[in-house]
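User: Can you predict the 3D structure of Ca2+:H+ antiporter? Sequence below.
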Amino acid sequence: MSTTVNATTTTQPLPRWSLAVPPAAVAVLALTWGRGLGPVLLTLVCLGLGGAVVAAVHHAEVVAHRVGEPFGTLILAIAVTVIEVALIVTLMASGGERSSSLARDTVFAAIMITCNGIVGLALLVGSLRHRVQEFRAHASGGALAVITALVTLSLVLPTFTTSTPGPTFSGAQLAFAGVVSLVLYGVFVFVQTVRHRDYFLPKSAADDLDEDGHADAPTTRTALASLGLLLVCLIAVVGLAKTVSPTMESAVASIGAPVSFVGVLIALLVLMPETVAAVRAALRNRLQVSLNLALGSALASIGLTIPTIAVASVWLSGPLLLGLGPTELVLLVLTVVVSTLTLVSGRATLLQGTVHLTLFSAFLFLAVTP
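Assistant: Sure. Here are the predicted structure tokens for Ca2+:H+ antiporter:
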């Protein structure tokens, strides 16, 4: 059951802080871009990054309230992923052979973060407040099926193909993977937003009548302003994450962790808006929205990154390593199995959240000590 909003009602303007934070974060980005970060600038970057994340979540919720679910979560997931993909291509173009595995590491990290970290955290905080939460198993299960197919075709097969040496695709294989990724993601978005949109709405009709549901929907002008400010916030998040990456590289080197762990840290920073939004939705007993965010982000990460990398490989020099290693394959299989068991019931408790967060902890631990 959907709620109707009286078109004659007035809406509150956007809070002043939400208007001030995005340009302030961009100003911090402009001030610190390409510079070494001392203690003062590092603190400024961290404050700008945190503020941009909070503002991004706020504006995403404004847009979601206007367009409804699942469009709101889809907009946030795609916006973050598009900017993330642009960052990956930029780093690969300037990083030389050292960045040959950047796309693989980033996409795999995004899958582990979304399917275990974000899902596990949402299940944990939601079950602590509401004990048992319900969601639509056929919707989330379908999203997991697409994720499994995409990650297998894009990141698992290169390890076993024989046309080229190493965990790589030939040109024809990469083109095929790119087309298939784009087609599968496009069909999923069509099903999510048109053909079976109701599958991805909150399980209980009562969920639509919570405290947020009683608020007047924002005007089109307010929603468009929030959409623009959301994009500004996401650009600031990704840019500030890149700015702080040299500092993270030094910190990673000082603890003896592999260079690939920097990609994990950057992915964690970039996915902060989805994490905060998913946790807030779970606390409001809207677990389906949390799952839409987490699984939708994983799908967008694969479905948009692989086709883009396939096109960019025309001018990128050096090998493009896509195949996962043995440790990553074990974590991926375990994640798929556990996610299937979690999503098949349509009900979530504290136990499932703990299991997913344990897998996420194992991923982080093995990323530091492979």
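The two ends are 49 Å apart (CA to CA). DSSP finds twelve helices and two strands in the chain.
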